[in-house]
Amino acid sequence: PAGMTEEAPIADFGELAWAPHVIRAGGSYRMFWSPHKLHQMDSADGITWTNHRITMSAPYHKFFRDPMVIQVAEGQWLLYTTARGAYFSQVDVYQSFDLEEWQYIRTALRGSWGSERNSHFASMESPFVVQYQGRYYLSLTYNNDSFFWPGILLQFHIWLNPASYNDTLVFHSDNPY
User: Fold this and answer.
1) 124 strand-pairing partners
2) Measured by CB atoms within 10 angstroms of the end CB, which terminus of the chain is less buried, N or C?
């Protein structure tokens, strides 16, 4: 009833910090964010963050951003990110056994000609994976839904259909890759 208040920034390093994602691992919290490289910080309580570091400075594909981490086995984590192939957006998967060193595994989902709401200028943003009843569910949002003009108009800060950004697509699989 009293509303919410905004706390002081927990990290300000003078550069972009997109799509922070927090997990609990080994009795502490880990926060990951991007773009174009993977940043990480630690916290004992989820409020006070320390030890800023870049744990991946050169991702496998261009437009690396929106990292999301899920533990798939004891001591094994997967990192899902927005990426870009030759012409279309995609979601990439990386693997780690210590949350510090990341190895590119493969593309988990790739857009192409005929993909619903995909274009050269669209992005599969904010990928998020959950496991439920033996299946993995990948949700994402496209940042636009038409072929050519929105990508050009966005450069001039004109967005023809901002409501389309609220649409989420969900895909499922029996494996997390």
Assistant:
1) 142
2) N
